[in-house]
Amino acid sequence: MGKKVKKESETPCKETFEPLPVEGKTPATVVLLLSSPEEDILVKACEAIHAFAEKGDENKVSVLGLGALAPLCHLINHNNKLVRRNAVMALGIMATNSDVKNALKKLDVIPSIIDKLSLEEDVVVHEFATLCLASLSVDFICKVQIFDNKGLPPLIQLLSSPDPDVQKNSIEIIFNLVQVTQPREGYNAINTVVLIKMRSKNLSVSSTSSCYLCFYFLQDLSDLNAEALQVVANCLSDSESFQLIHKGGGLTRLMEFILTPNVSEIQSNAVKCIAKVAQSSENRKLLHEENVEKVLVELLSVADVSVKTATCQAVDAMSFHLASKDSFRDLGGIPAVVQLLNDESLVLKEAATQALSNLTHSNQLNTFAVYEAGGHEILVQQLYGSCPRTVANSAATLGIMAGQEVIRCSILSHGAVQALVEPLKSTNTQVLVNTTQCLAVLACDAEARAELQSAGGLQPLVNLLHSYHKEVLHNVCLAISVCASNEPTAVEMCKFGALEMLQEINQSVNRRSSFSELALISLLNSNLSVKYSLTSHLASSDIISDGFYDAGKVCVCVYATESFVKQKETMGGAVEMEKLHEFPWVLHLSELKFQLQSNVVPIGLIRRGIYCHRALLFKCLVDSIGMSCTLVRGEYNRAWNEVLLLSGNPSSNGRSSQPCCYIVDLMHQPGSLLKANTSAAVQYQTI
């Protein structure tokens, strides 16, 4: 609109209206235009008053003094939709001022405003009509008028409005109404609460009002229905709101209601309230102080499945509070949960296994409580179930319990390893995570590893190395590293490609980890021939025995220790460095392979051996007499042994000096020691 006009003498207001397409340009004139018979002028006049009043309380009071309130109250019922809308907007914005509000109380305007809450009206009308009622509803007389004029039903409907301002205003009105006056005839209080919380979840304003509404209805729970309790649960899940309710005694009242014989659906939803509240650590502490564990343990023995299921879910949620775990055990809750595993309901079994998983986590006493109740035996049977979550929960609990040796032995005696084989083939990620973790713990037992192999579990375990899920892959690698402590098991896994897959994983920037490295090392440690072929190094702790072979880097030939070695320092004796090229070891080895018709040559048959043969023989002999040395492969058939020896005399304080690393010369001056990293040692290791 155009530029503002100057202030005229007949009005005390500091501001003026923007020009209208009519002659009046001052607030007083525009107020007079509210009585015009022309609809276009009425539309513009109401619009101008709304814009003017919106700028501050001083303007609202000014328009009030000019007598705008009565004609506006009349125009909100005008037949013209635009006139009606603009009049409601002007009245709604003015009602936020206390002087205007007091003046409105003297007018019989509430019935007309309630009429504007009809779903046939524009959403803008709903916004400003509820804004007006929100201001008026703080007054006791106005509350009664709103009730008497059946204002609650349309307000409840508007809780479903897509407009957040309409929702907010409606909530505030209902909140103001229920604080003093009991709901009147025709008003379903519970449905109101349901919609309030459903809508308030999406609002940016505080949920305090809706929580007070919940508290209001908690004062008399005799007529609460299941749907309402779901809403109460939503409200109580917020820590701040829950504390407000708790301070007012609402939680104590809810706890009393839970234990009162009632309709099972209502009781079930009441327990769900507790589970919802317990999602917060602060709330769990308050619930524990209210001895909620005692209430929940009592509910575990009721007949209704839905109540027991909800109770298990609440037990699970509360078990994140350490003190609650102990309380459930002391109150006899653990055997009660274990018994629920025998129920036919799949949903209840799932909830019970989840509760046991959380109850036993990091709690040894609870673990033994489950064991003493026979829970481990039933959990093993749950591994054959059709519900993935139940299988995952059972595997998780068994994995926790198997950390105790006496329990692990009992778990294994009930066929846990066999039961875990099928879950290893699952496509459910959580099943795989928990199953492989459980298997890694159980496989600490040698019999378990053998059973896993005979049950056909090694191949599906190795196949999981293809997984790109981080936690699954970590657990699989851990299980493989444990299983690899048995040489037959390690060899079997290598047959299924575990070695190649682990090498590939460890070359990947994204997939490699300390777990995959450990798995590869464990496999290699159980197959020293392969380890030496791949790494060209055996540590002093790697003890070789008959059956070890050196395949070389590219498997040119193999030197086995299969035949008994009767050795005089043989293999051609000392060879001078300058005459090394004349030493006929290649021809001799070719003759042996021809005689044997094999590339596998027993080391005891070699009479002319080079560095790699002599180092292998030395390693074999040293390991056989209980001493130790390394075996390291170099380039061009070089290999050497390293030993750690103490050098010099003990120090003055009686302590031995640090051991030094020496390389044993087996080629040029057999038996002599070359200190590592010296020029002589380096010359021995290289050409």
Mind explaining what this structure looks like?
With 687 residues, the protein is mostly helical. Helix content is 58%, strand content 4%. It is built from 39 helices and nine strands. It has a three-stranded antiparallel beta sheet, covered by helices on one side. A three-stranded mixed beta sheet has the order 2-3-4. Strand 5 (631-633) and strand 6 (639-640) form a beta hairpin. Helix 5 packs parallel to helix 8 (123-136) and helix 25 (375-382) packs antiparallel against helix 26 (388-401). The protein is elongated. The protein starts with 26 loop residues before the first helix and ends with a helix. Mean pLDDT is 85; it is low at 1-12, 183-188, 201-206 and 562-566. It holds the Pfam family Arm. This is Armadillo repeat containing 3. InterPro entries: ARM-like, ARM-type_fold, Armadillo, Armadillo-Ser/Thr_Kinase, EDR1/CTR1/ARMC3-like_pept-like. ARM repeats lie at residues 150-177, 332-374, 415-457. Keywords: Repeat.
Features:
39 helices; ARM-like; elongated; 9 strands; disordered N terminus; three-stranded mixed beta sheet; mainly alpha; 687 residues; three-stranded antiparallel beta sheet; ARM-type_fold
Number of helices: 39
**Total number of β-strand segments?**
9
Secondary-structure class = mainly alpha
Largest sheet descriptor: 3 strands, antiparallel
Sheet with the most strands: spatial strand order: 1-5-6
Helix content: 55-70%
Summed over residues and divided by their number, the pLDDT gives a mean of 85
Rg, please? 43 Å
Low-confidence stretches: 1-12, 183-188, 201-206, 562-566
Rough shape?
A: elongated
> What proportion of the residues form beta strands (DSSP E)?
under 5%
Could you give the distance between the termini? Answer: 97 Å
